[in-house]
Design a protein that fits this description.
Blueprint lengths: L1 H24 L8 H24 L5 H9 L8 H23 L25 H22 L9 H20 L5 H11 L1 H6 L2 H21 L2
Helix pairs in contact: 1-2, 1-4, 1-7, 2-6, 3-4, 3-5, 3-9, 4-7, 5-6, 5-9, 7-9
C-alpha cells in the first residue's frame, strides 16, 4: 500500500505541476513560460519525485513506464494492475486540484485543459498518424533512457536527473505535435475535465505510449545485454 500511495501522490504531482504550468503559467502572452517552461516543469516533476519516492515505489508515475519495466524484466507483473490504478487515480486527483485552482479566476474557460489531441486537437494541427508515431517514438526513447539510467552498471545517483531531463527534451520536441503525453495517466486525468472531443481522442494517448514503452524497454535489453 505504501508503494501504491507513493505512485498516487507522485502522479498527482506530475499532473498538477506539469499540466498546471500549461494551464496557469503559460496562459499569459507577455509573461507566460511558453513551451520551454512547460517542458521544464514536466521534467522537474519527475526529477523531484524520483528523489522523493524512487526508493519507495520506483517512481514510475506512468502506466507506460510500469508496463515497459515489466516487459524489460525490472518490475513484477503482479504489481502492474495496482500501479496503473494508483497512477490514474493520482493523475485525476492532480487534475481535480488544478481545476479547482484554475476555475477560481474570473472568466475562466477550461478549453482543452492541457489535454492531448490530434487533428484539430493538435497544437500544430498534426494528423492522427503523425501524432501516433510521435507518441510511440518519444515513449520508446523515454523507456530506453529509464532502463539505461537505472541499470546497475550506470553511475549511481544520477538516474533522476537523466530521466527528468529526458522528459523535458521529449516535451520540447513534441508539445507542438500532441501537446505531449507519453503517459496515459496524464492524458486521462485532464481529458476527464476537458470532456468532449478530448475524451474521444484520449484512446491514442493510451495505446501509443503503451506500445512505445514496450518497444523502448525491449530495445534496451537487446542492446545492453551482456
Amino acid at each position: 500500500m505504501k508503494r501504491l500511495l507513493a505512485e498516487f501522490v507522485g502522479t498527482a504531482w506530475l499532473v498538477l505541476g506539469g499540466c498546471g504550468s500549461a494551464v496557469l503559467a503559460a496562459a499569459f502572452p507577455e509573461h507566460g513560460i511558453h513551451f520551454v517552461g512547460v517542458s521544464l516543469a514536466f521534467g522537474l516533476t519527475v526529477l523531484t519525485m524520483a528523489f522523493a519516492i524512487g526508493h519507495i515505489s520506483g517512481c514510475h508515475l506512468n502506466p507506460a513506464v510500469s508496463l515497459g519495466l515489466m516487459l524489460g524484466g525490472r518490475f513484477d507483473k503482479k504489481d502492474l494492475p495496482g500501479y496503473i490504478i494508483a497512477q490514474v487515480l493520482g493523475g485525476i486527483t492532480g487534475a481535480g486540484i488544478l481545476y479547482l485552482i484554475a476555475s477560481g479566476q474570473a472568466g475562466f474557460e477550461k478549453g482543452g485543459f492541457a489535454s492531448n489531441g490530434y487533428g484539430t486537437g493538435s497544437p500544430g494541427g498534426y494528423s492522427l498518424g503523425s501524432c501516433f508515431v510521435t507518441e510511440v517514438v518519444m515513449t520508446a526513447f523515454f523507456l530506453f533512457v529509464i532502463m539505461g539510467a537505472t541499470d546497475g552498471r550506470a553511475p549511481a545517483g544520477f538516474a533522476p536527473i537523466a530521466i527528468g531531463l529526458c522528459l523535458t527534451l521529449i516535451h520540447l520536441i513534441s508539445i507542438p505535435v500532441t501537446n505531449t503525453s507519453v503517459n496515459p495517466a496524464r492524458s486521462i486525468a485532464v481529458a476527464v475535465f476537458a470532456g468532449g472531443d478530448w475524451i474521444k481522442q484520449v484512446w491514442l494517448f493510451i495505446v501509443a505510449p503503451l506500445i512505445g514503452g514496450g518497444i523502448g524497454a525491449l530495445l534496451y535489453n537487446q542492446i545492453a545485454k551482456k
